[in-house]
Amino acid sequence: MKTIITACSQNLSGSRASLLATLRTLLAVPWPSQRDVRAWLQLLAVLQWVLSFLLLGTVSLLLLVYLVFTSFWPISALYLAWVIFDWDTPEKGGRRLPCLRRWPVWRHFRDYFPVKLVKTHELSPSHNYIIGSHPHGILCVGAFCNFVTGSTGFAEMFPGIRPSLTTLAGNFRLPLFREYLMSGGLCPVTRRAIGYLLSKNGTGNAVAIVIGGAAESLSCRPGITTLILKNRKGFVRMALQHGAYLVPSFSFGENDLFRQVVFEEGSWMRSIQQRFQKMMGFAPCVFYGRGLTSVRSRGFLPYARPITTVVGEPVTVPKIEDPSRETVDMYHELYVRSLLKLFNENKTKYGLSEADELRIV
Fold this sequence. Notes:
Elements: H1 2-28, H2 34-68, H3 73-85, H4 98-101, H5 105-112, E1 115-119, E2 129-134, H6 141-147, H7 154-157, E3 162-167, H8 177-183, E4 187-188, H9 191-199, E5 205-210, H10 213-217, E6 225-227, H11 234-242, E7 245-252, E8 259-260, H12 268-280, E9 287-290, E10 298-299, E11 307-311, H13 325-346, E12 358-360
Parallel strand pairs: 1-11, 2-5, 2-7, 3-4, 3-5, 6-12
Antiparallel strand pairs: 7-11, 8-9, 9-10
Helix pairs in contact: 2-3, 2-5
C-alpha cells in the first residue's frame, strides 16, 4: 500500500513539474507587441482593399455565371432582375452607407502609408464644387482614402460638404462591386451622374474627379510628375454649366506607392497600352509593389510611403448654361495656374525637392 501511494505521489509531482515547465516555455515565447499587431492590422486593411478593387467584380461575375448552370440559378436570376431594376441608381447619386465610410478598418488603411489631408481654404456649404484630384497614380490611394472614407477627417475639416469620388462607369456594371462602390459614395464619371450631383442634390456637394484618368497612370513613376490636363476641359465646361467652383488638389507621394515598367513612346508595348486604354477605358499597367510577408519581396501591395493630399483654393466659376470655347479655355487656364501654385508652394513640405517640376501635357 505504501508503495502504491509513493508511486502516485511521484507521478503527480512529475505532472506538476511538466506543467510548470510547459508554462515557463510558453511565457518565454515573445508575444507580439502592440506595434506588431498594428502593423498586421494595417497590412490586412490594405490587402482587403486591393483584393476588393482588383478581384471583387470579376470573381462575383464568374460566380454568378457559374450558378446559372447549377440548382442555385435563382440567385443569379434574382440578382440580374435587381440590377435591371436598379440600373440608373449610380447615375442618380448612388446609395452611400455612412456606416461603411466610418468602418474602423479604414483607420488602419490610413495609417499603413500614412495618408494625411491638408486644408488650405474654406469650402462654403452654400456652393457646389468639382475637386480635381492629381495625380492618378496606379490605384488612386489618396483620392480613395480622403474622399471615400472618413478616416482623414474630411467631414470635420469641411463641415457641410459631401464628397463623391467618380470612377469608370464600367465598374458599376460588375455585380456586387457596384454595390461596394456606391456604398462608399462613388459615382460614374459621366455627365449625367456629375450633373445630377451638381444640380439636383442641393448645395454642399463636392465631386472629386481624377482628371488625368487611366492614361495618366502610364506615366506614373517616382521623381517625375506628369499630368494629362492640357486638353482635358470637360470638367471645366461642367463646372460652368452648373456654377460649381473648381478646386485643385494634389496628393504628394501618390506616385511612390508602386514601381512601374514604363515603355518608351513609339514602342509596340506602349502602343498596345494606349490602344487598350482608348477601347476599354483603363490602361494595362505593368507594375509591382511589396510582397505580403516581406517588404523586400515583390508583390501587388503598395509600398508604405506617406501620402499628403493638399486641397487648394477654389476658383470662383459663374453659371453659364452654354459657355463658349473661349470661356472654357479661360477658366481652364485659371485652374491650371491655381494647381501649379498649390504644387510649388507645398512640394518641399511633403517630400519633393525645389528642383522637382510639374509637367502638364
